[in-house]
Design goal:
With 101 residues, the protein is mainly alpha-helical. The chain contains four helices and no strands. The chain has helices spanning 39-47, 51-64, 69-80, 90-95.
């Protein structure tokens, strides 16, 4: 009877992600959970939070930062966060640059 013996210490690679594996997520503007541009919906999906709470956060930021903070943060995120399914953001497309990684 013949058989092949594996060298000492050689192991088969795991079939799937191990117990310590992390899911790679990236912030994207939502295409399904949106009211204006999907920024709050995408942020809520990324943080695994309620989109209404994120929208309230933008409203509070607006009040705390003199009425312009929330809309300014929202507009900045609209420009620099790519939409789900897109490789680049609006700003990267307009500037002709590579996607920010």
């Amino acid at each position: 009877m013949t058989y092949t013996e594996e060298p000492q210490g050689a192991q088969q690679p795991p079939a799937g992600p191990g117990p310590g594996a992390r899911e790679v997520r990236s912030l994207r503007r939502s295409t399904t959970n949106r009211m204006v541009a999907g920024v709050a919906g995408g942020l809520a999906e990324y943080l695994d939070a309620d989109p209404v709470a994120v929208r309230i956060g933008f409203a509070i930021a607006s009040l705390v930062l003199g009425g312009i903070g929330g809309p300014l943060l929202y507009a900045a995120a609209w420009l620099v966060v790519p939409e789900t399914g897109q490789a680049t953001s609006i700003a990267a497309q307009r500037l002709g640059g590579q996607p920010w990684a």
